[in-house]
Amino acid sequence: MQTSKSQIEKLFERFPELTALREVLFSALDELLSLYERDGILFLAGNGGSAADCEHICGELMKGFKSKRPLSPEVKKNFADLFGQPGSDTAEKLQNGLRAVSLLSHPGLASAFSNDVDPQLCFAQQLWALGRPGDVFFGISTGGNSKNVLQALMTARVKGIKSILLTGNRKGICEKFADIVIAAPESETYRIQEYHLPIYHALCLALEENIFSTER
Question: How far apart are CA 167 and CA 133, in angstroms?
């Protein structure tokens, strides 16, 4: 099936200054679609506002964004056959999702590893333990120099995990280690973040449109 890129085009209509990112955004979308075609996992990491963005992205991917993403009739029947009416009620409310893991969401592990080993390696340690070849790491660093994101990018390359970096135009060191670099056309942190949200919203919408369109 031909990939629909309408959500990315709509992004350019609202933010014409992002048109220069056309090729790299289409590449990122294709990489993410391939990830979910092979049932991989998207791992995300960032700091501060970027950490909140990671959680936000997971929320858009793991449940319905604009679509309700209902379970298939076959799966609903399986719930009903196994559990009767309670199973049917559950199946009607569950939604299909895309596997995404925020590496900010394991405070026990993060605090232990930070205390016992090295706080800069918390993201890398989780990616090393959880990631598999064929997964994708999505790092967010507005300045492009976040050391913990850099360590995770290095780990991704060794593990055979593709990487996408969402950053600004400061040309930080992280760019050298990422497979795909989406650089918002700003250098001031809050302005970069103002572009990051519509960029990742467009990617999440495009994923939903392509993967779940036949289920709507």
Answer: 24
Element (DSSP H or E) covering residue 181:
strand 180-183
Distances (CA, A) of 186 to 42, 133, 171, 202: 26, 33, 11, 18
Rounded Cα–Cα distance for residues 26 and 117 (Å): 39
Residues 6+ apart with CB under 8 A from 66: 205, 208
pLDDT digits (tens, 9 = 90+) for 106-117: 999 999 999 999
What is the rounded CA–CA span in Å between residue 32 and residue 205? 12
Helix (H) or strand (E) holding 44: strand 42-45
Cβ-based burial of 107 (10 A; exposed 0-12, middle 13-18, buried ≥19):
exposed
Question: What pTM was estimated for this model as a whole?
Answer: 0.95
